[in-house]
């Protein structure tokens, strides 16, 4: 939870990811202003906010593709400040991007092998076994030898998620992975995300498709003007008057 008064049950749970007084600005635009946040092991957390609120930037700070202006980020108590993106991935931080970024000239299977061998540091033999299992789980077995650059949008999204899973993540950061899909298509992705969470992977998901998000997460936060202005049960959060004001003009039917 965003730093507050934890319950006895919360105190018994391990904090997987912690943001401590995290600040980030781009010129005069403040993206994060002293953010405090605890995400506990095996939680499924959704992050909401209007376009431009800085949600994707927060993921960049966690993975190390962007640097902090102030504060620190801890992963299972370890300060990530001096660690590269690659080192953070080896620790168990994986990210799936809003716009899939496959290696287009490689096959689907080869894309997963890159994640398993370089992202997780597995041997070729172990990586092959893991990647075959992930192909099956993500419905990509029939496309294992297809070039990633020729996939449909749904299958590119599946591959983006599968490649992240190939890195053996402890925490999986998802950036609007349901965007651009039909309800039937994002229902398929939701099932995969639920399965990952059920296997012990902590989920942090940025999403505007609220039906998809609410079917997975048990906690929602709303980012606005550099701070989380709401944190709690997702259905309570989206009914919060402050949140309604932030989302003025954005239609939801959740």
The class by helix and strand makeup works out as alpha/beta
The DSSP helix count reads 10
Give the H and E element order: HEEEHEEHEHHHEHEHEEHH
CATH topology of the largest domain: Rossmann fold
What order do the strands of the largest sheet run in, or round the barrel if closed? 6-7-8-3-9-10
Name the helicity range. Answer: 25-40%
Give the count of structural domains: 2
**What is the radius of gyration?**
18 Å
Tell me the total number of β-strands: 10
Unreliable runs: 4-8, 249-254
CATH structural architecture of the largest domain: 3-Layer(aba) Sandwich
Describe the secondary-structure layout:
Layout: H1 8-11, E1 15-26, E2 29-40, E3 44-48, H2 55-63, E4 70-75, E5 78-79, H3 85-91, E6 93-96, H4 108-119, H5 124-137, H6 153-166, E7 171-175, H7 183-198, E8 202-206, H8 210-214, E9 219-224, E10 227-232, H9 234-237, H10 241-246
Parallel strand pairs: 3-8, 3-9, 6-7, 7-8
Antiparallel strand pairs: 1-2, 1-4, 4-5, 9-10
Could you explain how this protein is built, in words?
This protein is of the alpha/beta class. The protein folds into 2 domains: 1-92 and 171-254, P-loop containing nucleotide triphosphate hydrolases (Rossmann fold, 3-Layer(aba) Sandwich); 101-168, no CATH class. It contains 10 helices and 10 strands. β4 and β5 (78-79) form a beta hairpin. α4 (108-119) runs parallel beside α6 (153-166). The radius of gyration is 18 Å and the shape is globular. The chain starts with 7 loop residues before the first helix and ends in an 8-residue tail after the last helix.
